[in-house]
Amino acid sequence: MLAGSVPGVVAVAAGGWALPDNDGIRVREMGSYYVGGKSITLDDAESRDAFAAQGQPPVQVNPNGDFETGQVYVQYVRLARPRGSLPVLMWHGGGLTGASFETTPDGRPGWQQHLLAGGHDVYVADGFGGGRAPWQRYPEISQSEPLFRTKQELWELFRIGPPGSYATDPAKRRPYPDTLFPVAAFDEFVKQVVPRFRTYDQSTQAGYDALVAKVGPNVILTHSAAGPLGFAATIAAPGHVRAHVAIEPSGAPDPSTVDFSRLRRIPHLVIWGDHLDADGSWAELYTSTRRFHDALRKAGGRSTWIDLPAEGYRGSSHMIMMDRNSDKVAALINSWLEENVKG
Coiled coil where (predicted)? Predict the structure, then answer.
């Protein structure tokens, strides 16, 4: 990486890490567990008829009883000889799962493998309500019904193409001319999208905080809606969170509410893609995050800001970990961790 002209902003070198052969990644252990959550009792719901099986009459079900709720699913891979001093916890965006980091929709290695190749143990999480983490009964417990995003919303919101450019027929879709997203694999990507529960942030935060405490000293890598959860986890547990890498975070804390003395020794890396003017909400999130970045630096903290288009990577979508240059951005993250994060 080269020093940028703006303090706290770095340029990306043209080269990067080459992903080693799989033989270069020696795994000591892999597995999974659930963390966080609490017991909850439902006792005032009415019994109802429920579908039993094809061709059979419905059966009456009593929905009352004890449940576990709020837990986060974690898949971990621990290396035989990790070179990175700290494990990386990877938290996905809204309506997505940890699959975002595992493999790109067109079949290239995902950031999980790139971070492993960089020498870090990796913990990929499914936040509450996503992937292999369960969700609550609706309407008895959940405060709102899940949201199901259409392909058009995903295409436009994730900045693969401008508003009005989506079509049901893939041949008629009009992506940004410079897009780095693998457009031919868009429908494959959509297969991993799950319903989003907008009332689960507090439960998910508690689950992620429990994960931070369980793992101990770590690096958090967040994407999109997980960004604010990562900032909050860092502020709550600066003794455990030793760095936060935020990929297009959905905002950041109001600096007036933050005790920056807790964060001065915690380096932050914030990365943004292209076409942020396509939707006014992206500009607002960019501005609020920049305000936090500037305030942290003014308070004596360490925060690095990277606009990928300014570094020559035009056409980056919101799904930066899936773009065709995702390996180069992963190399940048690995290099930044090596330079900025100690045990």
Answer: none
